[in-house]
Amino acid sequence: MLNKPYISFCIPTFNRLEILQKTIESIYADKEVDLDDFEVIISDNEPNQSAREIIEKFSYKNLYYYPTNTTGFLNSFNVLKFGNGHFLKLHNNYTMLKRNSLKEMIEEVKRNLDSKPVIFYTDGLKQYNAVRQYDSYDKFMRALSYFSSWSTGFGIWKDDFDKVQGSLKINEYFPQTSLLVTQADKVNFIINDLNVFDNQHIPKKGGYNIFKVFAVDFVSLIKGECDAGKISHETFDKIKKDLLLNYIAVRYFKTVIARLDNFEKSDIKKSIGVYYSPSFYYLMILTSLFSPLKHLKRKFNI
After folding, report:
1. Percent helix, strand and coil across the chain, each rounded to 5?
2. What is the DSSP-derived secondary structure letter of residue 206?
3. CA-CA distance, 196 to 264, in Å (whole number)?
4. Where are the alpha helices (DSSP H) in the chain?
5. What is the pLDDT of residues 137-146, one digit of tens each?
6. Residue 178 phi, psi dihedral angles, 5° rounding
7. Do 84 and 75 form a contact (C-beta atoms < 8 A)?
8. What is the distance, to the nearest Å, from the Cα of residue 71 to the centroid of all Cα atoms in its chain?
9. 97 vs 3, 37, 83, 154, CA distance in Å?
10. What pTM value is reported for the model?
């Protein structure tokens, strides 16, 4: 492919048809961007190929649909295989682009086309609303913290993806993090914390034990980086603490206390006890009670 697009938006999907349609519409809303500069890839692992009817509503030459039998979160890895752009941007089906974000993201890829640093989008969640650069993997991972688990923040250069995809051991819940940690030898890393996304609300999310997945599976993955000497013990401890008090505590409030979703609630204490002391478990519960206030503080930037 001689004239490769700069960026491929790679969207794994399973149902959520109206939500997917709004996401696609948001990407194409910026009419000033040349269609040759980007592409949108849809990988649909719903057995009845339900997303096909949504794709057929559009007539864009750079919108591609691939049905697949890849199961679960592994579709987040599978979808990247179909991308032809210089930069493969993994993108959740509920993540809309804000106005002008497409142009800004393409310009960022153009600026970094030669050096190919790791680029990760945190969408203002770090609350410094800027683009920051790091000269080591350890510094980058410490700053990124548990957001390395977020699929819609992840992207990888196609050249780098092609180098590792054949030999990579994929974590079934965190394929994006499995790919991210293969980039430890890079010399430049970027966290883009500008507010470029507009995430749609997904009611009653669930279907798996989110407490085990994060407190055990994700922490095990990051511990592997520490054991291999790629990140420091201090960085590992920070990520682990941030995860418990800033993410798992919020999830506990939503799932157990407010019952806003359908995640499994079994053996929470047991899962957390794998890597955390009993005192941290009770601190997590206490912290969860204040999560609505933290949400309001973040929303109104106070």
Report:
1. 45, 15, 40
2. B
3. 31
4. 17-27, 52-55, 75-78, 101-111, 137-144, 158-164, 175-180, 210-212, 219-227, 233-242, 249-252, 268-272, 278-288, 291-300
5. 999 999 999 9
6. -60, -35
7. no
8. 18
9. 24, 16, 19, 15
10. 0.94
